[in-house]
Amino acid sequence: MNNFYDWIFEQDLDLNKEILSTQRGNFSYRDIQQGVAEYVQLFETLGDIKGKRIALIVPSVYDFTSLALAISKLQGITVPLSPLLRHEDLISVLDFVSPHIVFTVTEHNGFHLWETINQWAASNLKETIILENKEDMKWNQTIHIGEKYPLEEGQIQIIGCTSGSTGTPKGIVYDVDFVQRVGKGINIGLDIFENDKLFLLAPATGVFGLAWILSTMQSKTHLVLSENFNFPEIIQLFESHASKKFISTPSLFKAMDLFSKSLGKQVLNQVSLLCVFGELVTKEFLQTYSDFPAKIMSFLGITEFGTVMYTENDIRNDMNWTLLPNIKYKFDSQSEERIGELLYQSERPFLGYYQRPDLTNDVYKDGWFFSGDLGRTNDDGKIELVGRKKDMIKKGGQQVIPGEIESILEKHPDVLRVVVVGIPHPVFGEQIIAFVQKNRSDLNSQELYEYCNLRIARYKIPDQIRFIEEFPMVQGKIDKVALRKKATEQE
């Protein structure tokens, strides 16, 4: 199969079966098929989209899914972008990926997406088509005339972009095989049956959200997922569906559990299997849910590589990992404690970073993918993960690059220097702490919070801003270990 539409629909299907549910309603295969047909018709008015990059900033999961399938069917390239992106993040990503076409809602959570995108296209002097949707009305079209962007070649289906205010964002190239890998992990780890109904609490309109949607559709499994993180709405959606299998980041699951209990409800008691993924599973989380009646398991998925491992046993008993079939591993080098970086190999290779062969060569060598995960094998031959090589902060399932926040804050005229670290948080997995040196004595944290709020996505805004007179140093570099210790001790 060379496109997602054929992968799903070229099989024996009951087109009346409900396969996708959100706050907007329940959708059958026939509904999705109809949505795809309507978007194919729309694309026909725009000309051939083969090889064109089409950015989607579309909170409606039904429209997001139908668009992605239509794009794939017509041999275009889907570029899913979060509606949570704000001005500098959004401009940075648009500059990087250079989309031929952008689908966007007018505004989201008070931020005017269309206005920002339109201003970007007007100043870019390149041919760009923007389709704007306001309150579920028809798509309004704006065309900017200019030099044509080059087309893509090959079997690219998706370009997943990280946002970044520091330098150029990173794009990862995906194809059908990547989504098939995700689907294989879901089916094996969750022991999927056609009559199952999965509840997914995670960002729905990103690369992994799309991969879950497409792979469950292909396996004929009903997926229920929230289009937002409004917990009263999420609880209502969950109560309206008899979902026995719940997939979430640990922090989002805990937040939903706490909120439902504050309402005097025990809605999660119907769950028979809880799958947590996307961030560190802390000892505190396992202790909190030591008596939770469902089995708790986990997946390990890598943004670049797909799903690689899952836990067979309940993670409250052990946190040992089992590789998916056709995934091989080895360690790059190991310390005296047998800890080393995990390298993975698959029959379906990593496609690489978008327009960055240098980055691809850094992590993919001689057929092995360098994951950045640090691990070891135990006496039973199972893999144990012990940490990450880099300082990536994972908050509520979202990846946060400290350098992005540091760069934004250091642009403030009254800030001298910023260092951002992550420390454990009982609900969100990690929280973001920004240590700031200031050159104006009356500068306060509220001013900096407001400064960030206008420039970066909400989940990247530091949870705490702490002023510091002098940074601890070690061998001429800022000692982030000391800063993390300082931040933890002050909790």
TrEMBL record:
Q: What is the lineage of its organism?
A: Bacteria, Bacillati, Bacillota, Bacilli, Bacillales
Per the record, the similarity remark reads: Belongs to the ATP-dependent AMP-binding enzyme family.
SUPFAM superfamilies recorded: Acetyl-CoA synthetase-like (SSF56801)
Q: Does the keyword Isomerase apply?
A: no
- Keyword field: Ligase
Pfam families documented for this protein: AMP-binding, AMP-binding_C
Sorted alphabetically, which Gene3D superfamilies does this protein's record hold?
3.30.300.30, N-terminal domain of ligase-like (3.40.50.12780)
- State what protein this is by name: Acyl--CoA ligase
Q: Does the keyword Ligase apply?
A: yes
A Gene Ontology biological process noted in the UniProt record is:
fatty acid metabolic process
- Which GO molecular function annotations are given, in alphabetical order? medium-chain fatty acid-CoA ligase activity
Location of the AMP-binding enzyme C-terminal domain: 404-473
Q: Which residues form the AMP-dependent synthetase/ligase domain?
A: 18-354
